[in-house]
Amino acid sequence: MSGPAWAALLTPSGRGAIATIRVAVDWSSWPPLDTLPFRAANGRPLSAQTVGRVLFGRWGTGPEEDVVLCPVDPQSLEIHCHGGAVAAQRILRDLVAAGCHQVGWSDLLCQTESPLRAELLGELTRATTLKTAAVVWEQASGVFESAVRSLVSAAPGDLPGAAAQIRGWLKWSDFGLHLTRPWRVVLAGRPNVGKSSLINAILGYTRSLVFDQPGTTRDVVSAETAVDGWPIELSDTAGLRESHDSLEAAGIERARATLASADLPLILIDMSQPASQSDRALMTEHPAALVVAYKCDLPAYRGNLEWPQHESRGWLPVSAKTGAGVEALVTAISRRLVPAVPPAETLVPTTARQVTLLQRALEAAERSNVAGVLQALNELIAGPPGSVSDQASAAKENGSPATS
Predict the structure, then answer these.
(1) Digits of tens for pLDDT over the chain (404 positions)?
(2) Can you say whether the dihedral through the CA atoms of 368, 374, 380, 383 is positive or negative?
(3) Is the preceding omega at residue 63 within 30 degrees of 0, hence cis?
(4) In order of start, what are the domains of the chain with their CATH numbers?
């Protein structure tokens, strides 16, 4: 790598066991390399070390810092030191003194990766489970860019085929956008139906306030977990009913708005109570909801207002008190949110920018506009505008060290 050297802290700030610093530089020909205050245990200077070798050694003097350093490839070094701010900042100061430009990790990506790969690697940092990270990593590892470049070559001679290909990619857009933000599951029902208790049962610990007085939940209470490796956010909302209390009414209105934006509404019906028109109205308003026949540990209500079998068929019997049906409910939630996953090597858009450009390319293909298709696809490959920060750009132009 020619040009200036760049250094960035890759691990989050704050307490931690290990901090990692990446240095992007052609280390085999960087003059300041052997002036760095690092002494390898094998006694050889850094310029004489081999790529891929993990080096134990010490950094600095009075006091020395134990570090592990590795020339990852000919253009980069990684330095691993004790976690927390002190050790990492000390090493970064020494790197800046040697001529490195200190930047944020996202700016380092922009200096060392293509704009599209930098965008995808940035999304990778927001994936919260191994399953979602694996999909994003596959995209960043070349699947995304290779697929788009192939379509750029093929589209002018086969616009209908290009349109079909893009439709196939866009089919996974909702899935892809959720790889870096959880699917929202919102619980709804009458006051005191037991939404808080059910969230606690799903999470396995007490997160929501549980109290036997209707109308206790005034605000939306949310907690994140994962089911089958997919991240979800469970939201406990105010019980839905008419209320003259201004505070409770505001909570109910917020609950309705949250429910309307849910990826999956979860409607709880207390089977031990008489059937309610408000429950029926809630299900009519949200026909795609998953309905839970709740408190199945209690005897079902019998009488003129009991729930008829044709209405309750397909509801999931669950009891938070005994745990009955909770596992089946979690499985049902997973299947509803992620009914299918893309086959390996399938392009999956992971950002709103990517989805927008694919939609533009599809619209152009459907209008037989070859130039429009190619423009949108090339913008997709080019990556988001303004990827490199002003600070990093200025440092590159001036050849002077920059600090974050």
Answers:
(1) 446 899 999 988 777 789 999 999 888 889 999 999 999 999 999 999 999 999 999 999 878 999 999 999 999 999 999 988 899 999 999 999 999 999 998 888 888 889 999 999 999 999 999 999 999 999 999 999 999 999 999 999 999 999 999 999 999 999 999 999 999 999 988 888 888 889 989 988 654 444 343 444 444 577 889 999 999 999 887 544 444 444 444 555 666 666 888 999 999 999 999 998 888 988 998 999 999 999 999 999 998 899 998 889 999 999 999 999 999 999 999 999 999 999 999 999 999 999 999 999 999 999 999 999 999 999 999 988 764 433 334 434 443 333 33
(2) negative
(3) yes
(4) 6-114+387-398 (3.30.1360.120), 116-172+342-382 (no CATH), 183-337 (3.40.50.300)
Q: Which residue carries 């019997």 as its tokens?
A: 317
Pair of tokens at residue 397: 């132009």
- Joined tokens for residue 396: 């590159």
